[in-house]
Amino acid sequence: KQWYQRRVAITAGDTFDKMEALYQKYKTTESKSWLKKYLTPDLYNSLKNAKTSYGGQLTHCITPGLVNTDSNIGMYACDPEGYKTFGPLINLIIKDYHKISGEITHPQPNFGDLNKLPFGNLDPENKYIISTRVRVGRSLEGRPFPPLLTEQNRRAMEVDVQKVLSK
Predict the structure, then answer these.
(1) Which of 64, 112, 122, 126 to pair with 144, CA 20 to 30 A apart?
(2) What is the spatial distance between Cα 89 and Cα 33, in angstroms, rounded to a whole number?
């Protein structure tokens, strides 16, 4: 809850004017983030008025980095469309973070019939795999990511997930 409240205080209600003021101040900081490295004035100006169908704007993606100048990355996708809408910036950061050259390809968000996945039994004699885990983060179809989520959105997502897991 504390993390959520801190995050909401940073992003909820941010306006274009607030982002502009934070950006002007940020340009003078000694931040070592990838946001600082790649967000040039030209790139900022080309993206500052962009908006996703979820309502995501550049302010939702970069305000955490503008406020927390010690952040390593400095930006977050605001929703699934944010990767395309803010791609000119986000892709530079993704490439640097993952040491990728060339085009970025994202996997399909749905793997289809789980019985047809090409993995097979990875440890048929039960000798090597003791346990495994799957990390799922901010990826419920039709939902924005944390920079746009309200407490009401989070509660609705929790109810939806509980319904699916209780089947």
Answers:
(1) 112
(2) 13
Query: What are the φ/ψ torsions at residue 47 (nearest 5 degrees)?
Result: -110, -15
Q: Which is nearest to 65 in space by CA: 32, 99, 98, 95?
A: 32
End-to-end CA distance of the chain: 27
- pLDDT, one tens digit per residue, over 91-111 is 999 999 999 998 887 666 666
Interval 39-54: pLDDT, tens: 999 999 999 999 999 9
Say which amino acid occupies 142: G
* Contact yes or no for 112/106 (Cβ under 8 A): no
What does R_g of the chain's alpha carbons equal in angstroms?
A: 19
Angle at 133 between CA 128 and CA 139, to 5 degrees: 150
Say what angle helices 151-165 and 2-11 make with each other, to 10 degrees: 130
pTM (two decimals): 0.72
